[in-house]
Write a structure and sequence with these properties.
Protein name: TetR/AcrR family transcriptional regulator
CATH topology of the largest domain: Tetracycline Repressor, domain 2
Organism: Lysinibacillus agricola
Number of strands: 0
CATH architecture of the largest domain: Orthogonal Bundle
Number of domains: 2
DNA-binding region: 36-55
Keywords: DNA-binding, Repressor
Distance between the termini: 61 Å
Structural class: mainly alpha
Domain HTH tetR-type: 13-73
Radius of gyration: 19 Å
Strand content: under 5%
Length: 200
């Protein structure tokens, strides 16, 4: 690729990322239904037309953010599965990573985007299809093998593993929402969360 073309591509990529970052903030604060392209353009400090130059619609932008959030969640769970240690140690390591990420605004907003995608009727059809397709692995499904293995080794309490996984992510989502509403919200350490699941 010639140098100028390479530079142009870098500029296009940077501009798209700028728009996505702005959209993340606006969607997190206003929700999918209430957000307009003009709101995203204003947050990004760009013209309305320039946003449309890079994206066809707010639906396309929202879909890209949902995919980014979903991939980020699954990636951290897969890293935890590959991490050294017992199932409980893997779960604790994953919890530490997630809680540390909540200190970072972008990760917190991505959690909120996923909550919106899972609960709002206003989300684009593309997002609904992405979240319900057969090969889409939810964080709950991806975490189940660790929980079941921990139960088999006597580390994790004997309860329905799906219920435990749902409870785990409900805690995480609740903390993410609190962090957005109250930026100084204290985040518990992983040990506090692990006590709920650890067999005495």
């Amino acid at each position: 690729m010639p140098k100028n073309e390479e530079q142009n591509q870098e500029l296009r990529d940077a501009r798209k990322e700028q728009i996505l970052q702005a959209a993340l903030i606006v969607f997190a604060r206003r929700g999918m239904a209430a957000t307009k392209i003009s709101d995203i353009a204003k947050e990004a400090g760009l013209s309305h037309g320039l946003v449309y130059h890079y994206f066809d619609s707010k639906d396309e932008i929202f879909s890209m953010l949902v995919k980014k959030a979903a991939n980020s969640s699954i990636e951290i769970i897969q890293k935890a599965i590959e991490h050294m240690g017992t199932p409980l140690e893997k779960l604790k390591w994953m919890t530490e990573q997630i809680l540390n990420n909540l200190i970072d605004t972008e990760h917190t907003f991505l959690f909120l985007i996923m909550i919106q995608a899972s609960t709002s009727d206003a989300i684009p059809n593309e997002v609904k299809e992405f979240l319900t397709k057969d090969n889409a692995l939810s964080p709950v499904d991806a975490t189940l093998p660790m929980i079941v293995a921990g139960q088999e080794e006597g580390e994790i309490i004997s309860a329905n593993p799906v219920t435990l996984a749902v409870t785990y992510f409900a805690f995480i989502q609740g903390l993410a929402i609190n962090k957005i509403q109250w930026p100084e919200c204290p985040i518990p350490d992983a040990n506090m969360l692990m006590k709920i699941f650890t067999k005495e």
